[in-house]
């Protein structure tokens, strides 16, 4: 399959998936109990006229199909509507908070890739006690939820030792990196364990392959065997977990941002869900779906470059 044909096919698939996701995202909020009007009234009783005015202002009394297609048309033009809670454009809210979340996810992803690959490689190559120690550490990491890791890290390194801030996002790039270090580690801990185990398993499989045996019999230096024939051949398997890694980061960001009061879109989503801020929840949910699909597309495009045995669109199967 040529690159152009693959790209066109995937673009069409993404468009259809996003359309279906938009319907689910838009309709899901209306199935939940409560309404934006109840939040705006803050528990006060209101006359039927006042309630009707609120519903009319936010088009809550329009038929579902009318609301959906009006919202979809605006989204296609880049207009996500107006936040019911913050009384401002959702696009402005996202523009203010999205950079913080993207920086947090980028830092966490960097930690996951660096530490996860290193631990997996060391465990597979050295074996013995080192392998057992890595397995024990990764078992602890995988068994620690992100919100538990956030509480533990915050209590030890922020409250007791005072090495890092206990919350907030900071001002300026350097200050933001300092503030987001603990949240990034809390976000990355589970995925470090998962990626290390995947890397270890893939490298152990590669170590037992025939071409590695042949390379060793020809006197190829062990370091070169590990680098060119073992680690490189295992990257295809590792890369296929990329979508799972990013999706986990996106989901767990909500918990970590709330614990550290980071003020990104994860915390915004949590607050908007509790206050029935339909436009904000719908916008963030749709963006998360789009990001997840984009990551999977990038993974599919990179796989043939990492492992020439694979073709475009084939995950884990030989081309």
Automatic annotation (TrEMBL):
Cross-referenced Pfam families: BPD_transp_1, BPD_transp_1_N
Broad class of the protein's primary localization: membrane
Keyword terms, alphabetized: Cell membrane, Membrane, Transmembrane, Transmembrane helix, Transport
UniProt keyword Cell membrane, yes or no: yes
Domain called ABC transmembrane type-1: residue spans: 98-299
Transmembrane segments: 12-32, 102-122, 134-157, 177-196, 237-263, 283-306
InterPro entries for this protein: BPD_transp_1_N, MetI-like, MetI-like_sf
Annotated membrane topology: Multi-pass membrane protein
UniProt-listed PANTHER family: DIPEPTIDE TRANSPORT SYSTEM PERMEASE PROTEIN DPPB-RELATED
Protein name listed in UniProt: ABC transporter permease
Organism: Streptomyces luteolus
């Amino acid at each position: 399959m040529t690159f152009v044909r693959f790209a066109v096919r995937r673009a069409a698939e993404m468009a259809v998936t996003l359309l279906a996701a938009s319907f689910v995202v838009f309709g899901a909020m209306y199935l939940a109990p409560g309404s934006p009007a109840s939040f705006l009234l803050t528990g006060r009783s209101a006359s039927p006229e006042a309630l009707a005015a609120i519903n009319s202002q936010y088009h809550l009394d329009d038929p579902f199909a009318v609301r959906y297609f009006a919202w979809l048309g605006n989204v296609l033009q880049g207009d996500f509507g107006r936040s019911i809670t913050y009384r401002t454009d959702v696009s402005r809210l996202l523009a203010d908070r999205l950079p913080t979340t993207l920086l947090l996810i980028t830092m966490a992803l960097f930690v996951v890739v660096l530490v996860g690959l290193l631990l997996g490689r060391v465990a597979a190559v050295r074996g013995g006690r080192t392998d057992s120690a890595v397995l024990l550490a990764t078992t602890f990491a995988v068994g620690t939820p992100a919100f538990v890791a956030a509480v533990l890290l915050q209590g030890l390194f922020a409250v007791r030792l005072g090495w890092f801030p206990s919350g907030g996002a900071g001002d300026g790039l350097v200050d933001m990196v300092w503030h987001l270090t603990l949240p990034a580690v809390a976000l990355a801990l589970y995925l470090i364990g998962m990626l290390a185990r995947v890397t270890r398993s893939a490298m152990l499989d590669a170590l037992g392959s025939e071409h590695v045996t042949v390379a060793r019999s020809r006197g190829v230096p062990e370091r070169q065997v590990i680098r060119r024939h073992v680690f490189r051949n295992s990257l295809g398997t590792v890369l296929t977990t990329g979508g799972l890694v990013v999706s986990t980061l996106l989901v767990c960001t909500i918990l970590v941002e709330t614990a550290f009061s980071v003020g990104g879109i994860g915390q915004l989503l949590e607050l908007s869900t509790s206050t029935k801020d339909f436009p904000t929840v719908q916008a963030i949910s749709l963006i998360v779906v789009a990001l997840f699909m984009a990551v999977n597309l990038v993974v599919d495009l990179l796989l043939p470059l990492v492992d020439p045995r694979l073709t475009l669109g084939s995950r884990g199967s030989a081309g």
